[in-house]
Amino acid sequence: MKFNLKFLFITLFICAVSMAQTKGTISGVLTDKQTNNEALPFANVLIKGTNNSANTDIDGKYSINIAPGSYTVIYSFLGYETVEALVIVKANETTTINQALSSGSYTLKDVVVKASSVNREKETALLLDQKNAVVIKQSIGAQEMSRKGVSDVEDGLTKVTGITKVDGRGLFIRGLEDRYNNLLVNDLQTPSNSPFKKIIPLDLFPTDIVGVLNIYKTFNPNISGDFAGATINIETTQPKNITKLNIGFGYTTNNNLKKFLLSDDANSTKGTFGLLGNERALPSAFGSVPSGTKLSPDQYHSAYGDKNWDVDQTASPLNSSIGFLHSQKFNLEKERSISYIMSFNFDNKYIFREGVDRTFNLGQGNYDNNLYNTQYAYQTTFSGLAGLKYKTNRLNLNFNTLFIQATESKIQDQVGYTNSLANITNNLIRLNQFEESKYWNTQLFGDYKLTEDGKQTIKAGGSYVKTGFQQPDRKFITGLKVNDTDINMSYGGNNLNRQYLDVNGNFYFSALAEYSIKFGNKERLNNLTVGYNNFINDMESSYRFFSGRRNIEKNYTADLGTISKEINQDIDNGIVYVQEESNGDYKVKLNQFVNAGYFNLFWTFGEKWDLNAGLRAENSTREIKYREQGDPFGSPYRKKTDDKLDFLPSLNTKYALTEKSNLRGSLSKTITRPVAMELLPINYINADATSESGNSNLLNSDNYNVDFKYELFPNNKELFAIGAFGKLIENPIERVFKPTANSGGQITTFKNSEQAVIYGAEIEMILQLSRVSESLSNFTFGFNTSIMSTDVKIDLTKQGNELENSTNRKLQGASNWIINTDLKYDFTLNTAWKNSMTLVYNVYGDRIFAVGSSGMDHIYEKSFSKLDFVWTSTLSKNIELKFSAENLINPYYRKELGKNSTIDITEDSLVLREYKKGVGFSVNIGYTF
Questions:
Q1: How many angstroms separate the CA atoms of 173 and 846, rounded?
Q2: Do 358 and 413 touch, CB atoms closer than 8 A?
Q3: What is the pTM of this model?
Q4: pLDDT tens-place string over residues 146-172
C-alpha cells in the first residue's frame, strides 16, 4: 500500500489542534507567608501522579496546560511546607489557584529578603538554586553563615568545596591563589583596595551587609573572563522591615589581655578608631616632587613632633565589634514599593605573632637572615552600607553605596642576624608601620520588563569606585639589642629610614547592559541574552624614601620605647638629619580599559536537557607609565602597552537523570591578569632588606577549562555531588626568587612559566544523620573535598628560566588536597529557645609558596588545619546569642624549605617562618527591635 506522507502530516496536525483546543489551564501565583505574601519565584508546581510540572517565574506566577479532569496539584519549595490542592479543569477554561507557602521551622528571624522577594539566603533555597542552574556554581547565604559562626565573607567562602584561606594572603580556590580569582558586587566588576591583592580582602565584608555569596567555578559569558579558580559575586543585603543591633567581644589566647606594643600615635583615641592617616601624612616640606630636601631641626619637629619614634607598652584588651542594621519597606499603590537600608559595622582586633623568620642565600646552603620575629598588630575595620530600592510590577531599581576602611598599626621586632653575619646574633630591627586602605563603591543598577509577561527584559547598571592604599611614614630603626628595653645604636646605614607608599585609585568605573528574550514552549522556555560590560581602572603609585644621615659619629644606648628624646636632641645638635633619597622611579601609573560584548543562549531540549552556550569577545588595553631609577625627576615617562582581544567561548550542559539528580558538563576558555604589584615596576623593600619586585613584562595567562559533575538531591536538605575538572594554563604566573649579589637580601618577583596542566576531583555531601538512626535526626553532616594534581612545563633555554632546577614541577600556590567538613546539631529547649551547634573543620595540603632555583628546593606552605565550634541560640523573638570557639587545634603556621635541594644545606632547620595564631573565643549578642 502506498504511504501518503502529506495525508499523515495533515492528520497529525488536525489531531494536535483538536487536543490543544480541548485542554484547560491551571494558573496562579505562589507567595511566601513569612514576607507578607510576596511572590515566591522558582517554586515547584506538579500535577500529582504525572510528569506535568512547572516552576514559578520571577513574579511567582505559574501556568500548566492539561486535559480536562480532576487533579491534585502539589506546591513545594525547598525549605517550605508542601501543600496539595484539589482542582477541576474544564476544556478551554483557566482555573486560578493562588497559594501561600510557609517556611515553617526553617524561618530565621533576621534573614533579609532578596530583590526577587524569595528568601534565597536560606540553605534549602540555595540548594534548589544550585540544582536548577545550568552552570556549575555554589552559594552560601546568610542563614548558613550565621549557623556556622561566620563573621565575614572570607570565612563564609571557606565553607564551600575547594576553597581555603591563608592568613593574610586571601582565598585559594581549587588550589589556585588570589590572582586566579575575580570579584563582582551585585554583578558589577570591582577593584581591590590593595595593590598586593587581586580582589579586595573579603574578610573586610561583614556578613550583615551580605545576602548571598555566589561562587561560579565555570565560565559564563556575562561575567568577566578573568578567572581560573572562581568568580565570586556578592549580592548585598536587600531591604526588609528590620532594626537590629549586634555587640560582640572576643578573646584569643596569647593575643588579648597581655603585654602589647603600640606606636605612640596609635595609643590614642584617634588610634583606637584607626584615624591616623593625616597624622602620618607626608610632610609638606618635602613637596609633591622629590628634590633631595634636607630638613632643618625646626622643619623636623614641625613635621614629626617629639615622640614619633616612641612605642608604648600597654595591655591588649578584648577584641570588640558593634553592628547596626535598619531597613524599612513601604508598600505603595499599584503594586509599587519603596524601601531603604542602612548598616554600619566596626570591629577591632589585637593580634600577636612570634616565631622564626629566615631566608636562605640563593644557591648556597646557609641562612642569609636568621631572625626571631615578634609582631604586634592592632587592626580596625569600618564598613557602611546605604541602599534605596524602588519596585513596580515591571521595574526593579537599586541604588547602593558601600564604604570600607581598614587600618593596621604594627610594631615588629626582628632579632638575630642579617646578611649572613652569623657572628652577630643580637641585631635588632624595629618596624613601625601604619597601613590604611579605603574602598568606596557606589552603584546604580536595575532591570525592566519590556513586555508584561516578562519574556523580554533589559538589565543595566553602573559602578563608580574610589580606592586608596597607604603606608605613610613606614619607618625602621636598627641597632644591637642590649636587654628587653634597651638598644645600642649608631646613625647611618639603614637606620632611621622612612618610606611613604601611596597607591591611589583615581577612578574605577564598571558598567553593564543586557537584553534578554525568552521564547519557545511556555513550560520549557529558552532564553537568549546579548550584552556589554566594561571597566576602566586608572591608578598611580608614589613610593618615596627618606634616610637619617649622620654629620658626626655617635654610638649610644637608650630605651627603645622612648628613644625619640635622644634622636630629637641629636637632630637639634646637628649630629643627624633627615633627607629625601627617592629616585626617578618613585612614581608609576597604570591605566587599564577592558570592554566586552557577549551573547548567551539557554536552550532546553525536551524534558531532560538544558544547554548554555555563548561567546565573549573581551578587548583589553593596558598602559604602564614609569621611569627607571636613574631617570631625572620630571622627565617623560617610559611607556609599556599591551593590547589584546580575546575570544572566550563557553558551553555548559545539564542532563536531568531524574527529578532529583543531574549530570553536568562544561567547556570554556578564560584568561588571568596579574595582580598590580606583580606587574608594576616597583621594588617594595622591607626592614630586613628582603624585597618584592614587580615584572612589567608579565603576560596574561590563557586558561582552557573542562568540568564534569554528578549531583543528587535526595530531599530538600540533602546533597551528594562528585565532579572532575581539568585546566590547561598557558603562561601561568608564579612567584620566584631573583639572584642577588653577596647576601644582598632576598628578592621575590614573578614570571610566566610555559604551561601548567591541572586535573582533579571534588566531592560534596550534605546528609541528615537520621539515615543512620532516628535518634540522630537532629544532626546534619556536611563534607566537601578537592583532590588535585598539577604539572608545570619549564623551558630551561628560555630567558628567566636558567636557574630553574628541572623541566617540570608542581604549580606554585596549588595544594594537592583540601577538606572542609561540619557537623550540625539542632535542638529546641522550648517554643522560643532554639539552638544550633556546629563543629567546623578545614584543612589543606602542602603547597609551593615560592619556586626553588639554583639547586635549592621550593619553599612550601605546610599543611594547616582549623577546627571551630559555634553555638547559636535564639533566646526569644528578639534576642540571639552566638558563642564561637575558633582554631581549637591551634597548630603552627609554617613555611619550610623542601628536602630535595641538590646543594648542601649547612643549617640545622629548614623552617623559614612559623607562628601560632592562638585559640579564639567570642560572644555576640543580637537584639532585633
A1: 15
A2: no
A3: 0.83
A4: 555 556 666 666 656 556 665 656 667
